[in-house]
Amino acid sequence: MEGSVLLQTAVKAAKIAADIHRRYFNKDSAVSSKSSHFDLVTRADIEAEQAIAKIIKTDYPDHNLIGEENQYEQSSSEYSWIIDPLDGTNNFAHGLPVFSVSIAVAKRGELLAGTVYDPLRDELFTAVSGGGAYLNSERISVSANKELTQSLLITGFYYDRSQAMKRTLDDIHAFFIRGIIGLRRFGSAALDLCYVACGRADGFWEFMLNPWDFAAGSLILREAGGTVTDKQGRRRGLEPGYVVASNGLIHAQMLGVVGTETKQL
After folding, report:
1. What gap in Å lies between CA 160 and CA 164, rounded to an integer?
2. 150 — phi, psi (to 5°)?
3. Most buried one in 51, 118, 204, 239, CB count within 10 A?
4. Mean pLDDT across the stretch 144-148?
5. What is the three-class DSSP state of 1?
6. Where does residue 265 rank: exposed (0-12), middle (13-18), buried (19+ CB within 10 A)?
7. How far apart are CA 185 and CA 98, in angstroms?
8. How far apart are alpha carbons 105 and 174 in whole angstroms?
9. Nearest CA to 114 among 42, 213, 186, 201?
């Protein structure tokens, strides 16, 4: 299976990046800002992406790279690697131990393999298209919960503090009115998706995510039996935008809160 071979490179790169995370965590990491003072970048982000890119280019020199911290010259290759070297930078920069490295590879826009690695808990989530999802080599699956009223959900906040924030807060209020058990906000979308994949939560949504935020996690969740769409219920591709993810069983109920309910999942 092609994805299995690609996954070996993704895991190798993720573990090298995780070593960089551990080396810098709770130490001077030269924090700076990108598009706004909410959107931080650290030395660990930059060095981890450089290390990941080197490993991928060594194994697959013609493949394309799409990274959060750098822009790469694109080739005519059908393959693209989607990299978030440190998902949860704001947590990392404040010494909060919730962050991950996320690496996925797609062929003509279709995800073939992905990994999300939590270096502090040594939790390695992996998936290959058509091959199921795993946590540290153990098969995982989504929860069996069918009711929104029995659900634990996860969300995230986009860096925009105006309309995007208002709409997210409106969604939160609407979910609580619908009677959800609780809501969590961990600060790493890649891990959020994996937590739904292994049944720790029932659903996740976020107003705006980039492909490096959700590519690997969405494949892992789908391979674990879950569903990932936009807010209209259309299958989520690799373009930036709204993400709604769930165990599949409560997906229509979630869409009834955040968007137009549809059965075309």
Report:
1. 6
2. -110, 15
3. 204
4. 98
5. coil
6. middle
7. 11
8. 36
9. 213
Q: Tell me: the pLDDT tens digits for 31-42?
A: 555 444 444 678
Are 227 and 98 in contact, with CB atoms under 8 Å apart? no
Tokens read off for 152: 């634990």
Cα separation, 219 vs 171, whole angstroms = 25
Instruction: Give 2-20 pLDDT, tens digit per residue.
Output: 889 999 999 999 999 999 9
pTM for the model: 0.92
The total number of residues written for the chain in this structure: 265
DSSP string, 71-133: -----S-SEEEEEEEEETHHHHHTT-S--EEEEEEEETTEEEEEEEEETTTTEEEEEETTS-E
Q: Which of 254, 253, 251, 256 is nearest to 265 (CA)?
A: 251
Give the residue among 94, 118, 101 at the shortest CA–CA distance from 195: 118
Domains of the chain: 2-139 (3.30.540.10), 148-258 (3.40.190.80)
